[in-house]
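Hi support team,

I submitted a single chain yesterday and got back a structure, but I'm not sure I'm reading the token output correctly. Could someone confirm the output below corresponds to the sequence I sent? I've pasted both exactly as they appear in my results page.

Thanks,
R.
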Amino acid sequence: MAKILGLDLGTNSIGWAVVDDEQNKILGIGSRIFPEGVKADTIGKGDKEESKNASRRNSRQQRRQFYRKRLRKIKLLRALIDLKMCPLQHSELNVWAKWDKKKGKAGRKAPDSPVYEEWHRLNPYVLREKALLEDLTLVEMGRVLYHLIQRRGFLSNRKGKDDGAIYKGKPGMIGITKTQEQIGGKTLGSFLHSIFPKEGEPYKLITDEKGNELRVRARYTLRDMYVEEFDQIWSRQAKNLGLDDKKATKTRTQFLNGSLENNRNKKKIEKLQDKYGTKNVKIEALKNDKSKKTLHKVTTTINVPLKIFLGGEIHHDEDGNVKHKSQDSVLFWQRPLRSQKGLLAKCRFEPTFKDKEGKFLQRGKTPCHLSHPLYEEFRAYQYINNIEYGKKQKLEET
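Hi R., thanks for writing in. Yes, this is the structure output for that exact sequence:
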């Protein structure tokens, strides 16, 4: 007697039926209903359906953004302290940078010395305008750099054309396209200073030609706007402050799993030694008590000009557009997208084995990821082989 199980899969239910194929008889039928995976008030709204975990995911993303922004600020402040561009001591900064988790929020307090607070009260928009016309002091220049790391602008990881809400704008937020039109031939800081309420004067609503309010905040900006302004400010102030002759030490740390004798780690170390020099590559062995595996910490150091350390390599193309390479710069470095290659399972065509306890072990390599050139080549050949013409005739080799 042949029995067939039929399933009807829905968004929040599964319908089932068991049929006797020989007698054409339904042996059983029913359904199982379970809670939907999205919020009830967003069901059936297409792209606007919201997962129940969306709020938890958004909170996690915000925590990561705050943490990474804090790390960037601390790294910049350490450089400014060494350059005497910030009235702060490393010991005061360590209270914020190396906070004690046992103390909770009390040990996470940012520096609050009177001199440091007075440094923060300097109007950055006034200084960004002044930096293009007059000479700044080291302390004022440091305040400008600190403001640039607070407002870095938007940098897209997409290679295609960006024409979404960030460029067009949305209610309450001015788009990038309109901001570019308003800036004109000025820098972003100079434009924002022109619409910033003047200190000591009665408040006055500033509007454009059409009567729309011009606001310093509530607008999208591009990373290139800040890079261009940094380049102009540096060209105007570096000689006066003696910053062109100064260098900074750039440190990078990475970890290697396994022995240093295997080909993968050996090639990585040789590549680093050729690039930075043998003396500038430090290898330290770390032992993990839980996994009992050796982890190697590789630290590379190199001295670079202060401008590259702060802002990266900046140049302009033939059309005058700014071209920027962050090169791990403090101000404008963009964290690359997290790799998803670790989510690939083992290839299903590889044989399976059992261990001594009878558990299945999957051995072999992972399948080729979609971004690999070999997979792109495979797709090209697959597309060509599927081309048909006439009465389903295939292409022939020539």
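A quick pointer for reading it: The two ends are 54 Å apart (CA to CA). Let us know if anything else looks off.

Best,
Support desk
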